[in-house]
Design a protein that fits this description.
The chain contains three helices and five strands. The chain is an alpha+beta fold. It has one domain (about 5-100): RelE-like (YaeB-like fold). It has a five-stranded mixed sheet with strand order 1-5-4-3-2. The longest helix has 18 residues, at about 30-45.
């Protein structure tokens, strides 16, 4: 069963900021980053329970090659995965956690 995806506005903003930074580092790297996210998010939507709960009801997935964490929770009765944050591994962990308050 594939779950529907919803994104916090902040998660989309996270992606845009990261893509801009990667594009400034090397032309085309932003597209590689975006593709890695698409693949990771596709896996999340197909198998969200393959990822352990890390805090509250939040699970964390990691795209290949890029040092980012995809924070999400599962609304099982409605078959929805809600992505709350997509943040760099080196960012303070409470940045994503604060979005759940």
């Amino acid at each position: 069963m594939t779950y529907r995806l919803l994104f916090f506005d902040e998660a989309l903003s996270d992606v845009l900021q990261a893509k801009q930074w990667y594009n400034e580092q090397c032309e085309g790297l932003d597209e590689e980053f975006a593709q890695a996210l698409v693949q990771a998010i596709s896996q999340i939507s197909e198998m969200p329970f393959a990822y352990a709960v890390r805090y509250k009801n939040i699970r964390i997935a990691h795209p290949k090659r890029f040092p980012f964490n995809i924070h999400f929770y599962v609304d099982e009765p409605n078959a929805i995965v809600v992505i709350t944050a997509i943040v760099h591994n080196k960012r303070h962990p409470t940045k994503a956690q604060k979005r759940m308050k």
